[in-house]
């Protein structure tokens, strides 16, 4: 029951953290949209999550892989995690640059 309550609070927009970079400077930060994309994922709206923050999927894959590797000790985990990290950073930077244009 506590888990359901916590998920409900996360989905509610009035509980979302504001972007201080956008409020102060008027420019989206590299993480702008991630919180809303997570909410879309939780609601099952996968296309909307990608539209909101394209880097959400590489980040989710990275976190899932790191959690799996923690328990199962996957072979070549370092190479795979480095690839996923580079992909995530590239997607974050590409998203940030496209928002600036």
TrEMBL record:
Q: Which Pfam families match?
A: DUF2752 (PF10825)
List, alphabetically, the InterPro entries matched.
Answer: DUF2752
Q: Where are the transmembrane segments?
A: 50-68, 80-98
Which keywords does this chain's UniProt record carry? Membrane, Transmembrane, Transmembrane helix
Indicate what this protein is called per its UniProt record. Answer: DUF2752 domain-containing protein
Source organism: Poritiphilus flavus
């Amino acid at each position: 029951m506590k888990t359901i309550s916590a998920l409900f609070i996360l989905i509610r927009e009035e509980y979302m953290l504001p972007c201080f970079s956008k409020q102060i400077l008027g420019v989206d930060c590299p993480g702008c949209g991630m919180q809303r994309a997570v909410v879309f994922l939780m609601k099952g709206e996968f296309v909307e999550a990608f539209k909101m923050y394209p880097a959400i999927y590489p980040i989710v894959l990275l976190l899932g892989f790191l959690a799996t590797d923690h328990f199962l000790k996957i072979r070549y985990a370092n190479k795979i995690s480095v690839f996923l990290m580079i992909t995530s950073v590239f997607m974050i930077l590409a998203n940030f640059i496209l928002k600036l244009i």
